[in-house]
Amino acid sequence: MTAASAIQPSLAHRAEYAALRSAVAAVERLSFTRAGSIGERIGRLGYAPIGIRRAVVERQLSVSFPEKNADEIASIARAAYGHLGRTSIETAILPSYRAEQIVQLFEEVHGWSIIEERLARGRGLILVTGHLGNWELGGAYLAARGLPIDAVARHMANPLFDRYLTSTRHRIGMTVVHDEDAVRRVPRSLRDGRAVAFLVDQGALGLASTWVPFFGRYAKTPRGPAVFALRLNAPIVFGVAIRRPSGRYHLTFEPIDVVDTGDREADVDRIVADYTLALERWVRRVPEQYLWHHRRWKHQRPGTPRELGDPLL
Asked: What is the pLDDT of residues 254-311, one digit of tens each?
């Protein structure tokens, strides 16, 4: 029994889940673009008038982009809420799409040859990304192309949401590996020649992490992909699915160097810093498509100078 399945859903959990299923039922027969537009309008309500985590979003944007004025920050924040709403609806309706329909949602894919070449080495493939663009759609594309893929995922607070998202990922061809099972299952998957995907921009207490710069501040960042890569000689590729003005997506892959110098801790930290820097470069291009709602710098290493720590403290 998993941690999530052991939690009994509360009345609030059931109400939240009922609202989600009702929203999905209302939009799943619409076109992808139309459903996403509705999700965007709903998401923007979170910025105003509701104001869910608005101070968190605006403050983190302000310290990440100090060159932007208050109006520019507000504009990006508002768009980020809309993007989150759109992404949520797009993810919820994905199971109703066939593989060929999912592939058609992308107008351009750059670096697919990197995926093929790294997999051909026979040591599996580690894919890393962040909460940017539509990360779930990016994974769905890989599954739709026939890539054998596992997704390492954290449990959600609402166990009904957790089960729904897990079943959604399964239906589009992904195998879900929860954090508590990763140490046991990821090496097996890589040895079997599978791809294993990680979201690498949410550090959690109790998980193996290191602190590396993200927008100039130390962020607690999962080190698992780097550790697995070094132990198993597996390649790492960073990928991101960015929404274009057309409503379709651009998927890009780039390699992350895995160099074993014999100094395991230094090598891990360098690899983690490299894939975090790759994510930051893309966030700078489309900040409105990033999940600023999460407190990225909340967990801090003891002794971190205040100016390099959590901007919300």
From this structure: 999 999 999 999 999 999 999 999 999 999 999 999 999 999 999 888 888 888 889 9
Please give, one letter per residue, the 3-state secondary structure of the chain. Answer: CCHHHHCCCCHHHHHHHHHHHHHHHHHCCCCHHHHHHHHHHHHHHCCCCCCCCHHHHHHHHHHHCCCCCHHHHHHHHHHHHHHHHHHHHHHHHHHHCCHHHHHHCEEEEECHHHHHHHHHCCCCEEEEECCECCHHHHHHHHHHCCCCEEEEECCCCCHHHHHHHHHHHHHCCEEEEEHHHHHHHHHHHHHCCCEEEEECCCCCCCCCEEEEEECCEEEEEECHHHHHHHHHCCCEEEEEEEECCCCCEEEEEEEECCCCCCCHHHHHHHHHHHHHHHHHHHHHHCHHHECCCCCCCCCCCCCCCHHHCCCCC
Model pLDDT for residues 147-191, shown as the tens digit of each residue: 999 999 887 777 887 787 778 778 878 888 988 888 999 999 999
